[in-house]
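Section 5: illustrative case.
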């Protein structure tokens, strides 16, 4: 039997969405404003199509306006930049999200930098990245923000904890490390070149695994009672030949040792869109406050 408390990301994400919906209602009543989110999808990547559909549905369910822009895979960089320019100028659009990855003819960095930082609900613009690392108010990347909410659901005060982040990507590892620093954790960012990774992870009261390697984190890497947040979503073939989703954490083993653990699916995954909706409302609030 697993000893760890299972962190229910689905339920916590639903709670976040309810609180976003209440805030949207209040904005409508008090300011006569409905927050709007533009999602841009270039090409037909099947996983991206699923994400974009879910984003649109949850945006409308929260009472906000969703604008979808689907462009062919052959779209040029100039065409995409011109659309972003229009969205930046539009008063109805408070958040802009360009679904990644983009086709190879488009320079992703240029596109991210073209988005108005005030509307950058992904938190990927260098201005927002810089503000986050300077400890200033900013739009924060959604998956990292979700990880912090999940960790706090078991331990509301993270101050002083030893946190080990495995993975140093711009989308998860680095921003989650910044957020943990802001929570007064002692943060170590481990990665593929880290010496004695199991030894480093064993120090952690809080582990965030974001490496993209199926079931890499083993049970004997975990300090008894630690909180384990698994950001991995890996499709692997099970013993029955069917494909299934697993995280970066060997769940069954780690759950014997950890104090709390997020499952895959149903852990970090549902939090990403919930935090995107949260960012969209926050962006709308800031934009009307400055208007
Ligand atoms: N593709 C996969 N995850 C994400 C994300 O969080 N934001 C964007 N824009 N694209 C993605």
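Designed sequence:
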């Amino acid at each position: 039997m697993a000893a760890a408390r299972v962190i229910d990301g689905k339920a916590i994400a639903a709670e976040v969405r309810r609180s976003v919906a209440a805030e949207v209602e209040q904005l409508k009543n008090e300011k006569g404003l409905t927050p709007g989110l533009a999602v841009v999808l270039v090409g037909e990547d099947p996983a991206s199509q699923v994400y974009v559909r879910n984003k649109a549905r949850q945006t409308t369910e929260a009472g906000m306006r969703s604008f979808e822009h689907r462009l062919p895979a052959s779209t040029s960089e100039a065409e995409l930049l011109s659309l972003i320019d229009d969205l930046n100028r539009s008063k109805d659009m408070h958040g802009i999200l360009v679904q990644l990855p983009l086709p190879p003819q488009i320079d992703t960095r240029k596109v991210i930098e073209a988005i108005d930082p005030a509307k950058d609900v992904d938190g990927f613009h260098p201005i927002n990245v810089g503000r986050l690392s300077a400890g200033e108010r900013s739009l924060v990347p959604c998956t990292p923000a979700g990880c912090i909410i999940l960790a706090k659901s078991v331990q509301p005060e993270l101050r002083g904890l030893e946190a080990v982040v495995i993975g140093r990507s711009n989308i998860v590892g680095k921003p989650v490390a910044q957020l943990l620093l802001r929570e007064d954790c002692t943060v170590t960012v481990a990665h593929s070149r880290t010496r004695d990774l199991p030894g480093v992870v064993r120090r952690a009261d809080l582990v965030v695994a974001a490496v993209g390697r199926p079931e890499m984190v083993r049970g004997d890497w975990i300090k008894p009672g630690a909180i384990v947040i698994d950001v991995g979503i890996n499709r692997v073939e099970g013993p029955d030949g069917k494909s299934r989703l697993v995280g970066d954490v060997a769940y069954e083993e780690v759950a014997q040792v950890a104090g709390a653990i997020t499952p895959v699916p149903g852990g970090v995954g549902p939090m990403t869109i919930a935090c995107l909706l949260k960012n969209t409302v926050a962006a709308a609030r800031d934009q009307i406050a400055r208007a």
